[in-house]
Amino acid sequence: MSERTARKQSRMTDSQEVFKNDPGVEYSVRASVWLVVVDSEKLYYYPTTGRWRPTGGKKWYFSKSAEDFLTRVRRFQQSNKSKQV
């Protein structure tokens, strides 16, 4: 196994552990893209690259890790709620 493949596998395993330990997160794996539901909002997430976006959205965002992804998503959700009020 190459170093790059091992890194990707490690990121995927780490992401699974983080998502399993967070009660507000559900996910399903579909090849390289994951459908993640965070507090009832659906997002596409690529654990190997850290790219993510809300379903139906066109702009891509980036995160450094699964923990960073969850932090950014929750911040994104809060900013959208404040814009709607």
Can you give a write-up of this model?
It contains two helices and five strands, in the order αβββββα. With 85 residues, the chain is of the alpha+beta class. The protein has a five-stranded antiparallel beta sheet with strand order 1-2-3-4-5, covered by helices on one side. A hairpin with a 4-residue loop joins β3 (41-46) and β4. The radius of gyration is 13 Å and the shape is elongated. The N and C termini lie far apart (51 Å). The model has no long low-confidence stretch (mean pLDDT 90).
Question: Can you give keywords for this protein?
Answer:
85 residues, alpha+beta, 2 helices
- As laid out across the biggest beta sheet, the strand order is 1-2-3-4-5
Taken as a percent bin, the fraction of beta residues is 25-35%
The average pLDDT value, as a whole number, equals 90
How many beta-strand segments?
Answer: 5
Oligomerization state of this entry? Answer: single chain
Strand and helix layout:
Blueprint: H1 3-21, E1 25-30, E2 33-38, E3 41-46, E4 51-54, E5 61-62, H2 66-84
Antiparallel strand pairs: 1-2, 2-3, 3-4, 4-5
Structure summarized in a few sentences:
The protein has 85 residues and is of the alpha+beta class. The chain has two helices and five strands; from the N terminus they run H-E-E-E-E-E-H. The chain has helices at residues 3-21, 66-84, and strands spanning 25-30, 33-38, 41-46, 51-54, 61-62.
